[in-house]
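Journal club side-thread
Mid-discussion, someone asked how the predicted structure for our own chain would compare to the paper's figures. Pasting it here so we can look after the session.
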Amino acid sequence: MFTKLIKEMTIAAKNGGGDPEANPRLRLAIQNAKGANMPKDNIERAIKKGMGADSADYIETTYEGYGSHGVAVIVEATTDNLNRTVSSVRSTFSKYGGSLGTNGSLEFIFDRKGVFSFPTPEGTDPDEITLELIDGGAEEVENEDGYFHVTCSLEDFGNLQRKLESMNIEPESAELEHIPHTTVSLDDEQLSQVYKLIEVLEDDDDVQKVYHNIDIKDEQMILI
């Protein structure tokens, strides 16, 4: 986890500068690092590394493929060695009964959406916040258990970020995610098989995120 967070802070600092106040991506990466109890020194070193002239030339890349039982899988990776990463990802797919495909092959299954989460600000009217968010480009707004979960289109991601800033709301997470609109239901044995692939991919240091289109039932959560 620390390796993935350090990479994200390094890339954010390299691309947008080392000032978190002026760099929303870095600000969010720092929040995530603090949430994972990363020591302050590690955070500062990651930012300095990104600002340095000799910082690693990380590349952000995406892989698409299928696991067993027809499960669609998208892998987002950050690497300084594309050959190493694609070899590792392809090998993992093959080992667990899947196959790596071509980029764009899963566009008909997933939509790219912006997803924001933040606690309901104290002393505010959730209905008023909802209306403000819709005005800022939100497609879906859920307010449950004291938290807002907001979804927007890819095109409105930046607009909604700026809207939240104008409302003095700092999201706990703000990410572009691959949301499936076509899902696959599996029995318990099939789910256990496919999730081995997902877990091994997530354990790869070069892999940042893994998305799938499994419709996991509440009673199956204990299997993963």
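Post-session note: The CA atoms of residues 64 and 105 lie 7 Å apart.
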